[in-house]
Design goal:
mainly beta; 10 Kd Chaperonin, Protein Cpn10, Chain O; 9-stranded antiparallel β-sheet; 6-stranded antiparallel β-sheet; about 0% helix
Length: about 250
């Protein structure tokens, strides 16, 4: 219920006394005035629910992406920690992975028709805040552009990810545990590293004619990258990985 708070609001009202003398009598308004009712923008149909959108449509049970867009069935959020502790909804991490269930017909660049490089059934990882979320047949899905997909998972391990387009997968160098003077650093005071080793590279971006441009770095290179760029992941053994666009790389170290 949307309300407007009026604290100690008084409006002077002009009035005339019976004897012709003007007097002011305070008019007291209620402390809370209801001006309307706001409800979440959620349009529900048995087949399809679109969040944060004003869509009026009949019942639908299928969704066909257009052009270079794909439909991804979102992986469920983890409800427990590895130790078995139940997590409240606010503490559950937003999933960044899912299964591709439908793809568009691709796009035309110049005179060349470019098909989507991702196949139906592929397990993918996508940018954290990309796409439009929909609920289809009681499951959460995302409609994404192909370029919003970071990579394809060949296994359940992030280090086996196959980056897409102009992205690279980097194993992050370990942060220093001590200062130069020998003082031990806590996890919160360790400086975030911006150096790592390239594990895998994507096929490269498309040029104006729809051809792939190979990336300027290769697997095994040690690189310096922008400190706050990319999407970070931590695997079970505690190793950190990051996926960046090649434009976020600043130098190759040797």
């Amino acid at each position: 219920m949307a309300t407007v708070q009026l604290s100690s609001a008084r409006v002077g009202a002009a009035a005339f006394a019976a004897k012709g003398k003007a007097s002011l009598e305070p008019l007291r308004l209620p402390a809370r005035v209801t001006v309307g009712e706001a409800r979440p923008a959620r349009r529900a149909f048995r087949g399809l629910v679109v969040r944060a959108a004003t869509v009026v449509a009949p019942k639908y049970t299928t969704l066909k992406p257009l052009a270079d867009r794909v439909l991804v069935k979102i992986k469920s959020s983890e409800e427990k920690t590895t130790g078995g502790i139940l997590l409240p909804m606010t503490a559950q991490s937003r999933p960044q992975g899912g299964e591709v269930v439908a793809v568009g017909e691709g796009r035309t660049i110049g005179d060349k028709k470019v098909d989507i490089s991702i196949q139906v059934g592929a397990q993918v990882i996508y940018s954290k805040y990309a796409g439009t979320e929909v609920e289809l047949n009681d499951y959460n899905h995302l409609v994404l552009k192909e370029d919003d997909i970071i990579g394809i998972l060949e296994t359940d391990d992030v280090k086996d990810m196959k980056p897409l387009n102009d992205r690279v997968l980097i194993k992050v160098a370990e942060a220093e545990d001590k200062t130069p003077g020998g003082l031990l650093l806590t996890e919160t005071t360790k400086e975030k590293p911006s150096i790592g080793t390239v594990v895998a590279v994507g096929p490269g971006p498309l040029d104006e004619e729809g051809n792939r441009i190979p990336l300027s770095v290769s697997a095994g290179s040690t690189v310096l990258y922008s400190k706050y760029a990319g999407s970070e992941f931590k695997v079970a053994d505690g190793t950190n990985y990051i996926v960046l666009r090649v434009s976020d790389l600043m130098a190759v170290l040797s």
